[in-house]
Write a structure and sequence with these properties.
Elements lengths: L1 H22 L2 H29 L7 H8 L4 H11 L6 H14 L3 H12 L9 H36 L6 H30 L11 H25 L3 H4 L3 H39 L1
């Protein structure tokens, strides 16, 4: 037992060593800034697509805006709110959604290339521009579908529980259950969104179990980074002094850079985990 614990500790040190070695590559060092830029460009198109799809379920885009409002302020916040309040109809609706989906797929391209570069150890980043663009659009559709499912569960979760459990129990029991289950469900859905992205991004076929360690790392890391940055931006930092009217954009870019860095570390962690698994499994069986 003691020997297995020592081997496990040794494995985590080995994973850290492998991850550090990969992150020292110039490709990884420039990736977070590149991805943060595309995330900023794709943010509004993704929300526009979400607003069109959420309308089917009678869910207001204000739920998304309230989340965004915590990290964006001033003129930029008002501009985005005016964009989200635009409600096209008919052919304009279809054209806007298709165009927004195409624009939103831009953020998936660097993610796709990073995953391929990592899992093939630098052999290639893409299997062709056309395939890459098609996969990026498919990934956006899956991401939007996952986000819509998450929001539907959060908005109508209590109602769904009342329809199912309420038939055999009192509504007060359902209210208590939802109070205790809401946060675990939120965390589980958030982890699901991250895991699906890690699973579908590489061109190489990988097992779902192999992306769980990096997904956990990324999920926890992004939550800590978001909470930490929110406190930092509201209590400590004062971007207005240096950047003036651009302070909102700079703050968002810095936050997106942190998220991109954590996302990159999650991919590298998955690769290091897989590479070290067989070696240490053999050592445990000795």
């Amino acid at each position: 037992m003691k020997r297995n614990i020592l081997i496990l500790i040794k494995r985590f040190f080995d994973i850290g060593k492998r991850a550090f070695s990969m992150m020292s590559s110039p490709y990884y060092q420039g990736f977070p800034a590149q991805m943060a830029f595309y995330m900023l460009l794709s943010f509004v198109p993704i929300v526009i697509v979400l607003s069109q799809v959420l309308g089917i379920f009678d869910i207001s885009v204000r739920y998304i805006y309230r989340i965004m409002e915590r990290y964006v302020s001033g003129d930029l916040s008002k501009t985005m709110e005016s964009l989200f309040s635009y409600k096209p109809s008919g052919a304009n609706n279809i054209i806007l959604t298709a165009t927004a989906a195409w624009a939103a797929s831009k953020v998936m391209t660097p993610m796709h290339r990073l995953s391929n570069y990592t899992y093939t150890e630098g052999e290639y980043t893409s299997k062709g521009l056309v395939k890459e663009r098609i996969k990026s659009i498919v990934m956006v559709i899956i991401l939007v579908a996952t986000l819509v499912f998450t929001l539907v569960v959060l908005v109508y979760g209590k109602m769904l529980m009342r329809l199912t459990i309420g038939a055999v129990s009192d509504n007060s029991v359902v209210d208590v259950l939802w109070t205790y289950l809401r946060w675990p469900i939120n965390i589980l859905l958030y982890f699901m969104i991250v895991s699906i992205n890690y699973y579908i991004m590489p061109s190489e076929k990988i097992k779902f179990v192999d992306i769980i360690p990096g997904s956990l790392f990324c999920s926890i890391g992004m939550m800590i980074a978001t909470i930490g940055f929110s406190i930092y931006a509201s209590q400590i930092a004062n971007y207005d002094i240096i950047y003036g009217s651009l302070s909102s954009i700079v703050a968002v870019m810095f936050w997106l850079f942190l998220l991109a860095q954590i996302f990159c570390l999650g991919v590298v962690f998955n690769k290091a985990w897989v590479d070290s698994r067989d070696e240490f499994r053999t050592e445990i069986l000795k």
